[in-house]
Automatic annotation (TrEMBL):
Keyword Lipoprotein: no
Family recorded in the similarity comment: Belongs to the polyphosphate kinase 2 (PPK2) family. Class I subfamily.
Top-level lineage group: Bacteria
Gene Ontology terms, MF aspect: kinase activity
UniProt KW keywords: Kinase, Transferase
Ranges for domain Polyphosphate kinase-2-related: 45-279
Pfam families (UniProt xref): PPK2
Source species of the chain: Acetobacter musti
Protein known as: Polyphosphate kinase 2 family protein
């Protein structure tokens, strides 16, 4: 177990602390107010040390992803949710930089189009679920349909739904549908990790201002980001409901403090690593006859003249 210079905490110790601290359980009511967006889990790390640990984590993730791809029996679905400017894109960039792109893909779910609205809300989600051996990252996900539509129920008018919509029974049904869908995926061999990048309202304001002040980043800014801030409290309630109703052992939620970008990225990466390590996967065992044929080809190539 390699320790990071200047820190008394080893990576495995950090991983264990993060997994336990931010995982949402089923045994008690869930409240976002119980989680501090500026929390760093009391780890003896500064920003520079955190970034150094990120490099270690990326190398380990690469090794585990290679085993996942080689064995081809399990897949991993990573769901990223958060308010605007919470750091989803930056987190994806850091996760992607630690893996082989051949076995990983990212799907970003925008507002559903006309064809998608003719189907159930999970239709476009299911067709983008990961195949065996692959990692898929959802930048936003099925949860938009219990978040955005919860805050703006008028959007449900486009979904060709029968009966009364927007009622407590309606939302309860959607939570059940999501749980059943995720349980189905888990039974098919898909590991599911769901991360809510938790920032404070003031931190979001600062990040939006930074985008406007940096002309090279103004393209990231959208007027809708400011408009949606007016519904901050409604979104916090919607997230509490969604997370509380759908965090299960087969598809756990992690509330990741995201005011410090380096800490959020480290938390996500270490959680992924901890989950993949539990698989205890090893390189596939090669068929002896096939292995012998490879030796033959090796010998033949070695005898060729340059």
């Amino acid at each position: 177990m390699t320790e990071h210079p200047g820190s008394t905490a080893a990576p495995s110790d950090i991983r264990s602390a993060l997994l336990q601290r931010f995982r949402v359980g089923e045994e008690k009511p869930f409240h976002l107010s119980d989680y501090d967006p500026a929390d760093t889990a009391g780890l003896p790390l500064d920003k520079a040390q955190g970034k150094a640990l990120l490099k270690i984590a990326k190398k380990r993730l690469f090794e585990l992803q290679e085993l996942l791809y080689a064995n081809g029996t399990t897949s991993l679905l990573i769901v990223l949710q958060g308010m605007d400017a919470a750091g989803k894109d930056g987190t994806i960039k850091h996760v992607m930089s630690g893996v082989n792109p051949q076995g990983v893909s990212v799907t970003s779910f925008k507002q559903p189009g006309p064809q998608e609205l003719l189907h159930g809300f999970l239709w476009r989600i299911h067709i983008n679920a990961p195949a065996a051996g692959r990692i898929v990252i959802f930048n936003r996900s099925q949860y938009e349909d219990v978040l955005v539509t919860r805050v703006h129920p008028e959007l449900l008018d486009r979904e060709h739904l029968p009966g009364d919509v927007g009622t407590p029974a309606f939302w309860k049904g959607r939570f059940e549908d999501i749980r059943h869908f995720e349980h189905y995926l888990s039974r098919q061999g898909t590991l599911i990790l769901k991360f809510f990048l938790h920032i404070s309202r003031e931190e979001q304001r600062n990040r939006l201002l930074a985008r406007l002040d940096d002309h090279d980043k103004r393209w990231k800014f959208s007027g809708s980001d400011v408009k949606e801030r007016e519904f901050w409290d409604q979104y916090q309630h919607a997230y509490e409901e969604a997370i509380g109703h759908t965090s299960r052992p087969y598809a756990p939620w992690f509330v990741v403090p995201a005011n410090h970008k380096w800490f959020a990225r480290l938390t996500v990466l270490e959680t992924i690593i901890g989950t993949l390590e539990k698989l205890a996967q090893k390189p596939p065992v090669m068929d002896p006859a096939f292995s012998h044929s490879l030796d033959t080809w090796r010998a033949q190539l070695g005898e060729e003249k340059e």
